[in-house]
Write a structure and sequence with these properties.
Layout lengths: L6 E2 L2 E2 H18 L7 H31 L1
Antiparallel strand pairs: 1-2
Helix pairs in contact: 1-2
């Protein structure tokens, strides 16, 4: 888990993976490869929540590291 929490450009790898997944989902909907229905919208909503939570976790971890110093 520490590997996924390693910051790259200010965000963890996990945050980047979620963001790339959302971009790929949006791209597939725009190309009509994936239908724009309730399932797709639900997946997008879950990805947005996961992005928010992972960035929030990154911020908390950064604060803990600052307090240790």
């Amino acid at each position: 888990m520490k590997y996924l929490a390693k910051p790259i450009a200010g965000q963890s790898i996990l945050s980047w993976v979620f963001q790339i997944a959302l971009i790929v989902l949006a791209w597939k909907v725009a190309d009509h490869t994936l239908a724009n229905n309730l399932t797709t919208i639900t997946i997008a909503a879950v990805l947005l929540i996961a992005i928010y939570l992972s960035i929030n976790l990154d911020r908390k971890m950064r604060r803990r590291e600052e307090k240790k110093q």
